Structures are given as C-alpha cells and as structure tokens.
Amino acid sequence: MGLIVQKFGGSSVANAERVMNVARIVTDTYKKGNDVIVVVSAQGDTTDDLIEKANEINPNAAKREMDQLLTAGEQISISLLAMAIEKLGFPVISLLGWQAGFNTNSIYTAARIKNIRPNRLQAEIAKHNIVVVAGFQGINRYDDLTTLGRGGSDTSAVAIAAALKADKCQIFTDVEGVYTADPRKVENAKKLKEITYDEMLELATLGAQVLNNRSVEMAKKYGVELEVLSSLNPVPGTIVKEVAKMEKMLIRGVTKDKDVALVSILNLQDTPGIAFKIFSKLSSKNINVDIILQSIGRDGTKDLVFTVSKDNGPVAVELLEDMLDNCTIKCNTEVAKVSIVGAGMESHPGTASKMFEALYESNINIQMISTSEIKISVVIDAEAADRAVSAVHKAFIPNEL
User: What distances in angstroms separate CA 320 from CA 325, 329, 381, 383, one per listed residue?
Assistant: First the structure.
C-alpha cells in the first residue's frame, strides 16, 4: 500500500482501445489499496500534428502561442482517460499542469520546473480520487501556459513523485524495459533487470529513447526509484536506482544518436582566448557543444572540431563566419555518435580497444572519440551507425546477462 505515480506515453494512449487498457492498469493498481496519480502524454502523434497545423498558419509563430496550442494535446488525453476510469466505476479527476501546481520559468517550449505546489494533488488523494495529470506542461509567473520540451511528461511524473515522496514512479512505454540496445535493430539485445541512475542518464543523453534525461537527473537528485515497463505486456520491467557498485565492469548499453552535426574550423588563428570567444558565442545562442577536438598549433594556426545537434550545425556556422576571419568553416550533418555505457569502465583497461577493434573489423572509420568514467563515444559516418551498434553490441554483450 502506498502512493504510486504512473506515467503513460503517447503510444500507450494512442486510441480508444489503448486508453481503456491504461484505465485497467491504473484501476488494478488502485484496487490493491494504493493511491494513484497518473501522468499522461498527448495521444500518438498529436503534438507533431499540432506543430504541423501551426506551420500551415505561421511557421514563425511566437513560442508563447505555440505553448498555448501544444498544451491542448495533453488536455485531450487526461479527459479521455478520466472518462475511461469513470466508466470502470472508480473515482477520478483530471488536472491540467497548472491545476496540479506546476510552476515553471518563462522559457516557452522548453520550460524548466521551478517548483510544485502539491496542495490540490494532496486534497484529491485525500478524497481517494485517482488523479490524472497532464504531463509536459505548467504555468509561469505571468500566468501563461508553458511546455517542458520533448520528453517533458517523464519529467512531470518524476517531479510529482519527488514532491509527494511517492513509493514508486512507473514509466509505462511500448517496450518492456531498458535494453542493452534497440531490440528492433539489434539481434540479441537484452532487457536489464536494473540499472544505475548514472548509467541510465548517460544512455538517455546519448540517444536511448526510453527515458528523458532530465527525468533521470531529477530522479537521482531526489532518490525517486523508477521502473520502466510495458503498458501492453504485463511483465516485470527495469528498475532504475542507485545500485551498489561492484568491482566487475559491465557494459549496460550501446546507443546511437543521429541528431549530430560535426563543425570544423580549419586554419584558425592560434591566439590566446580564441576558444573561449568561440564557445561563449555559441553558448549565448543556447547552442550546446558536445565533443571537442583541438589540434596542436602549427604555423600560428590550429584546427578546432566539435559536435552540436543537427539543427544547430548551420546556425553555428553562420555565427562563426560572422566572427572569424581567414579560416575555413565546414559543417557535416551526415554523422552519428555511437556510445557504450557501463560503470567501472575507467578501472578496466582494454575497453576502448575492444570497441575500436569491433569497429575496425566492420570497416568503420572513427572521426572523433570522447570518454568519461562510464562511457566511450565515437563519431562515425551516419550510414554506418546501425552496423556499428550491432558490431559493438556483439563484442560486449554476452548471450545471457
């Protein structure tokens, strides 16, 4: 018996049949004596459809107005799910993000949660209602609706679990848990029974689409235990928690990310502070830089290469062309980042060479390398990404975990 927060993504509530399926999952949890708060995303491709409708009218619409529009998707979902739960004979109420107490900053379409005032949630739970909350949204200090960006419903669910000290936060998806690789693309991908916050955060950041990285970061900060499981197949999922560290190093996953652009600055004047000027300029435009490679200076020049998101590649080039002279700036968007993640990597020599050997044997060239305590990432040609993931997965993941 306890407080359970359950989150269902867009595919889990994509049509009437699936909405009723979610209603049964929620009410089964309630019947066991638990208090239940449900966080729901917009149905199926609703958010994309709304963006398309906006573009038909005004491709350069103000972000405030986009948030006014996009919050409608979750409003539809919570109402329909509440109706389904009501049909099954259970007490229920649906709440928009602002009604549930979500206060955010004022960065429209990419807002951050400042705090949650849980008074209404607590009041409804006290009445023994099942509470259905619109994920992905909140309200700012101007009383304007805001959205949290892609994957924001995961963050909404974890935030509620943290604020109310829930016993568990379950993230329901269309897969049965967290896998060592995308099971639709990689033969013998294995479902993990458990994974650490740090490992899950790296996987989410590096391209795994099971959980939003902001939600994992928040879960770690507030000690919220997550369970990733399927809304379509009732089997145990993957637990995300602070697992006790062991000496054995185990690769938890292999990921790919095709949302990558490689920006090269060639023959850059090697003057003090030039790197600071370049990256502070990019930062001022909210362009996040990932992997950075700088050559040794020669003849008063050097080469600087770094990665950004694919959309930001051309923007970065335009900014740099305006501020730099006498150098060549290029952008390659036909690249991908392939990564391995596993705790204990830094104390196990040979991990990198094993990865590089797998790529070599598949005739895949490495353009850039980045490492940390629990991950190794390489930038390669995009067309080789799936092949690279399969080769690296085969090298590291045994047939039985």
Answer: 9, 8, 24, 28
